[in-house]
Specification:
Chain lengths: 104, 136
């Protein structure tokens, strides 16, 4: 599903997926704090929720519970969400690297 | 809600609706020859489907939904077949009011509309991934 040409690498995607899986995805309240960290945490939680929903849809689709269209929609949503999470993460890592390489 | 995501939702509702429409068409075609079982009994009555706008206030979008699956009230045709179990005392059998030509035209239209919605979905998706590619 995850096209290697669009994602930076499959490993990056699976790493992000694993990280997201370990995160607590329960509380998806409204964004109260306006800080950058809070925003990141919120989008992380949204990502986890989307992944969980897609997993549930895929499983129930394989059992014959959901119609095909819902499974396809959830899977595509999962792809886009993971892609977005990976892109943002890559960008952050890149910024961090630039700070590390700064001549002191 | 994300604009590009709401495009996908609207297109998906259109695909769902056209799927329902094709289901009704297939029921009509399958039952085109269904007659009643008892003498003078009514045969299969053609099903019709109507759509309506489905407003999503949270996203501010208008999708489509099936409004009603009704029945065609056109009168049944009579066919002379005295040997049929559903034949009345004069030997006439009521046959279904399904017109296969109309159903075929309907099928084509459902298929084309589905395709149109699918293209919309595809375009929305590619726009979204193009936007994400900016981060690379």
């Amino acid at each position: 599903m995850a096209d290697p040409t669009t994602l930076t690498s499959i490993n990056a995607a699976s790493g992000a997926y694993r990280n997201a899986r370990d995160m607590a995805g329960e509380s998806t309240g409204a964004t109260e704090g306006t800080g950058f960290a809070e925003m990141l945490a919120q989008s992380g939680r949204d990502t986890v929720t989307a992944i969980r929903e897609a997993e549930a849809a895929a499983v129930s689709g394989l059992h014959g519970g959901t119609d095909t269209q819902a499974v396809v929609e959830a899977t595509l949503e999962l792809e886009t969400t993971v892609q977005m999470a990976v892109s943002v993460r890559d960008k952050l890592v890149e910024a961090y690297k630039q700070i590390l390489n700064m001549p002191v | 809600m994300d604009l590009l995501k709401s495009i996908l939702t609207v297109a998906a509702s259109g695909m769902q609706a056209q799927g329902e429409r094709l289901k009704v068409v297939s029921e009509n075609v399958a039952n085109a020859n269904s007659t009643g079982a008892a003498p003078g009994a009514d045969p299969y009555r053609r099903k019709t489907i109507t759509f309506q706008e489905m407003l999503d206030r949270d996203a501010g979008t208008s999708g489509v939904a099936v409004a009603e699956i009704g029945r065609d009230t056109t009168e049944f045709q009579l066919r002379y077949d005295p040997a049929h179990p559903a034949a009345d005392t004069d030997g006439f059998v009521k046959v279904s009011n399904v017109n296969t030509i109309i159903e075929m035209a309907n099928m084509r239209e459902a298929s084309r509309s589905y395709q149109a919605n699918l293209n919309m979905f595809e375009t929305g998706r590619s726009m979204r991934s193009q936007l994400l590619d900016l981060l690379k």
